[in-house]
């Protein structure tokens, strides 16, 4: 596709259930980022991938959160035993490269709106 | 914690007026980027500034990067209803892959 895609667009789940969010980055983009945006708030960095490796997982809020990336492309963010405070929009972004001062703006997907009841 | 501060949080502007949003970091930035998020949408890249004192213009938008590379501003002239949205600055703080986003300035326009 032409841009970053995310699925599902909306997810409503019950507290305690696990959810899996998917991100398809722009083809050829080596860097991939996950962010969380709560209502009316800024973007909270969660994790960064360079290729299939995640050199920085420091933003993951707890050990209930995990992410992986396969084939240098698709990434999944998994939240186990969801809590109400996990409710937010989860945004994925990709970038042509993640290092160096060359232009590396981030291209965002439409996000997944997660609601935990 | 938040390392890039952005003010004001909200900006209510009369159509046709100018306004400025400011971004400040306590540490030197290697570069700064600006994004716009329309209501219900996702952030869209506007511009990147790299050089000390750099000024870039996009039509009615003027972006500046401070001499010390610790602050930046976005000035919009003759505001239009299409300018509605939240403007985020995002800085690279030393490492070269992790953007630290400001909290954003949400702009509303009175016709």
Which bin fits the share of residues in helices of chain B?
Answer: under 10%
Radius of gyration of chain A: 14 Å
The run of helices and strands of chain B is: EEEEEEEEEEE
Low-confidence parts of chain B: none
Structural class of chain B: mainly beta
Given helix and strand content, the structural type of chain A is mainly beta
Main sheet record of chain A: 7 strands, mixed
Helicity level of chain A: under 10%
| Poorly predicted parts of chain A | none
Count helical runs of chain A.
Answer: 0
Count of DSSP-assigned helices of chain B? 0
Radius of gyration of chain B in whole Å, from Cα?
13 Å
Cα distance, first to last residue of chain B? 37 Å
Query: What is the count of β-strands of chain B?
Result: 11
Shape of chain B, please?
globular
Quaternary assembly: heterodimer
* Percent of residues in β-strands of chain A: over 45%
**Overall 3D form of chain A:** globular
Query: SSE string of chain A, helix = H, strand = E?
Result: EEEEEEEEEEE
The count of strands of chain A amounts to 11
Largest sheet of chain B: 6 strands, mixed
Write the layout of secondary structure elements.
The complex is a heterodimer of chains A (117) and B (111).
Chain A: E1 5-7, E2 10-13, E3 19-24, E4 31-37, E5 44-50, E6 53-56, E7 65-69, E8 75-79, E9 88-95, E10 107-108, E11 112-116
Parallel strand pairs in A: 2-11
Antiparallel strand pairs in A: 1-3, 3-8, 4-5, 4-9, 5-6, 7-8, 9-10, 9-11
Chain B: E1 4-7, E2 10-14, E3 19-25, E4 31-37, E5 44-49, E6 55-58, E7 61-65, E8 71-76, E9 85-92, E10 99-101, E11 105-110
Parallel strand pairs in B: 2-11
Antiparallel strand pairs in B: 1-3, 3-8, 4-5, 4-9, 6-7, 7-8, 9-10, 9-11
């Amino acid at each position: 596709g032409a841009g970053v895609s995310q699925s599902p667009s909306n997810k409503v789940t019950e507290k305690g259930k696990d959810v899996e969010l998917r991100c398809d980055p722009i083809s050829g983009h080596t860097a991939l980022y996950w962010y969380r945006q709560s209502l009316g708030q800024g973007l909270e960095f969660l994790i960064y991938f360079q290729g299939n490796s995640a050199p920085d997982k420091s933003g993951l809020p707890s050990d209930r959160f995990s992410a992986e990336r396969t084939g240098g492309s698709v990434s999944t963010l998994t939240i186990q035993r969801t809590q109400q405070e996990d409710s937010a929009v989860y945004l994925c972004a990709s970038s042509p490269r993640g290092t160096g001062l060359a232009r590396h703006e981030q291209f965002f997907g439409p996000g997944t709106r997660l609601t935990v009841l | 914690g938040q390392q890039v501060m952005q003010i004001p949080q909200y900006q209510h502007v009369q159509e046709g007026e100018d306004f400025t949003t400011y971004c400040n970091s306590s540490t030197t930035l290697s570069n700064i980027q600006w994004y716009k998020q329309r209501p219900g949408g996702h952030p869209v890249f506007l511009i990147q500034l790299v050089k000390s004192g750099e000024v870039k213009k996009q039509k009615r938008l003027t972006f500046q990067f401070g001499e010390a590379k610790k602050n930046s501003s976005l000035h919009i002239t003759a505001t239009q209803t299409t300018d509605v949205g939240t403007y985020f600055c995002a800085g690279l703080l030393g490492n070269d892959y992790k953007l630290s986003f400001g909290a954003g300035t949400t702009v509303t326009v009175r016709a």
